[in-house]
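lol ok so funny story. i was supposed to be doing the assay writeup but got distracted and ended up predicting the structure for this chain instead. priorities right. anyway since i did it might as well share w the group, maybe its usefull for someone
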Amino acid sequence: MTDAPPPARRFAPRTTTALVAAGLAVVAWGISRLLSLPPAGAGTLAAAAGACGVLALELRAARAEIRRLRSRLTAIADADPLTGLGHRRALNRDLAALAARQDRAFVLMLLDLDGFGLVNERHGRGAGDELLRQAGRRLGEVAGRDGKAYRLGGDEFAVVAPVDGERSPDVAATALLAAFALPFRIGGVSLRVGASLGMAQWPDDAGTLEELFVNADAALFAARAERDAPPPRQFPRLRAIG
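and the output, tada:
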């Protein structure tokens, strides 16, 4: 049995920069010897070559840092500051990307919290903000790896999830509403807050993304009217008009 080769040695960025500079200086010295330059000229050429090498490495590192910061700023700009979920602009962008694929159906589910205003009145806006944060975490967990949750504003949220043979829209909606079955623990107080949900499926229920939003919002409005209906609950889902 042969021994595994030793792992490649990695140098710290500063060490790498110094090695490159030294290597370029040696190359420049060799060129100066070929050109028969005087010692002063050879030294100047070697120093310039080393400086150019260092500058090239620093520029590459700066470009990498700029890319990292740009990606970080984009993520911050797309996130709701209270819950950390994507906001409406991120939702619009993601929906456009999904619709452009034309190879996979998905469902847009809109939700709002039942009794959120009462929580603000009785326990204060701080408790209301904490409720939104906890609700956002629950929705994000239920949406899972394939889906994604967003906060649109106030107590209104959205979830986008793929539609396939393993998970129908009604199954996804049931799982989302089940996330509100357990009480929310806020400031030592146990609060029970439900949710209403309406959804529309792409491309079956809409020909444009604007129509998808309109239909899902109309379904949410209908769900609010039916939230006191006895089980089993039906999740309103509007078909495309026309």
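Residues 71-75 have pLDDT under 50 and may be disordered. The chain has two domains: 13-77, 88-225.
back to the writeup now i swear
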